[in-house]
Amino acid sequence: MWLTQLLERNRQCFPGRTALVDEERSVTWAEFHDRTVELARGLAELGIGRGDRVAVLSKDRIEVLETYFALARLGALFVPLNHSLAVPEVAGLVGRVGAVAVLGESELLDRHTELPPPVRIRMAFDKPAFAALGTVARERELPHVADTDPIAVLHTSATTGQAKGVTVDSGSFRAIALGWLVMARPTDDIVLVNCCPLYHGSMVVSLTYMAAGATVVLMPGFTPQRALSAVARHRATHLWMVPQMLRFMLQAKGSHSTDLSSLREVLYGAAPMPLDVYAEAVRRLGCGFRQVYGMTEVGGPFVTLGPDEHPAPGDVTARIPCGRVVPGMSARAVDEAGREVPCGGIGEIVVRGPGVMQGYWNDPEATREITLDGWIRTGDLGFVDDEGRIHLVDRTKDVIIRAGQNVYPSEIERALMTHPAVRDAAVVALPDEDYGEVPLAYVVVDPDAGTRPAELLGHVAGLLAPYKRPRRVEFIDQVPRNPAGKILKKLLRA
Fold first, then answer.
1. Residue 390 forms beta bridges with which residues?
2. Where would I find the AMP-binding enzyme C-terminal domain in this sequence (predicted)?
3. What whole-number distance in Å separates Cα of residue 494 and Cα of residue 490?
């Protein structure tokens, strides 16, 4: 019952301290605790109980975390959904986990009028019915939830591009939080501005700092101006974002005139830090930097490089090291046979420890594929140096990382192939100064169809979330493949 214990401790130790802030309101730790208990009882009155899956479709706001913690008290599983997904994508995820309820913002829920069974409850955070939950069931007993009981299904994607649900328990959240806080050495006055969404593994960073009693500031979506304003208004000490967000923030007109002197650490992850952005941020912000390397399947952030270990900008020749693994977790580089490679040797990074997932939801085959003798395969190539720091050198998969979000080429290729004029398609990463990488689609079309690139871009817009859509479509005569039929993406990149 890690999330429950977290709340009970913070209510006891810091009852009047602000726990959460969004653009509408703020709550203290005592208020957050009490509302979570009330909400858990209200959800139980609706028939939601241990083992049920409840999808959450919302931008970042206090009610999202209230719902996560309330469901954890019941032993029900919260299933965060990316609110930018297209209608078929949301329906597919809801159906695959067998969600009995979908909670979220009315504006988003209204886009998804038809959801598959067994969904029987739809409720909006911004409607009176949600606020009233629990007010008539104050004496209802809540169950005991063990640390080994699953409490969340966090969606990621596999190499095939189909979203997979990562099943995690309270023990995972606890292991990562305690290990991380040993490395980060938090103080009692942390105010963390969270620029990242609460619908995937990056939310574990916020949960971890909440365990230390920090104040977490939520934003409904990232804009440079919103982030700058939040830091200045709340005198934030910590800022959590992906490198492309940092680039946008430094480029914003208001960045020079905004008082950012309260910042002590910028936490960044999900993509490599561009060296020019790092150098400019060091010069402009004058604070420390902490790298976050994580993976949803291993519990989230399991490696960090702290401010005292970051090199000076002029000393970086390639990539900044990811850092050392947190206490309680183990990581190493292995060869194709699963044998640990010597110090400095390049291999696939694998991880094990109490933070790792229980498995992919209802997908034992995919779970077996990612597991190697009890270790979780990250799909990243790297090495461990003689001081225990992990360095990444490449990715074993063809994943495109656009502004910190994974985009899988095969998913885009399948969407393109649903157009009647498309004969073949291949998608690769196109370097982009602002987003790191964006998808570039090479397409073979029926020459008699008269199809234009703009038509294909419009076609996939109805099938894919905005961040997954190709930046550009280029027509080619033939997609290069090897004798086994595998696309030779190296040729396309060249």
1. 323, 384
2. 411-486
3. 6
CATH architecture, domain 2-291: 3-Layer(aba) Sandwich (3.40)
First to last CA, the chain: 51
Question: Domain coordinates of the chain in residue numbers?
Answer: 2-291, 400-493
Residues 56-83 as b/e (b if ≥16 CB within 10 A, e otherwise) read bbbbbbbbbbbbbbbbbbbbbbbbbbbb
**CA-to-CA separations, 158 to 78, 152, 256, 283, 464, in angstroms, rounded:** 20, 18, 41, 38, 16
The helix (run of H) or strand (run of E) holding residue 44 is: helix 29-45
Q: Which positions ≥6 away from 433 have C-beta within 8 Å? A: 247
For residue 268, the surrounding DSSP H or E stretch is strand 265-269
Tokens of 424: 């073949």
Query: What values do phi and psi take at 343, rounded to 5?
Result: -50, 130
For 457-480, write each residue's pLDDT tens digit: 999 999 999 999 999 999 999 999
- Tell me how far apart the alpha carbons of residues 265 and 243 are, in angstroms, rounded to a whole number: 14
Quote the pTM value: 0.85
| CATH, range 400-493 | 3.30.300.30
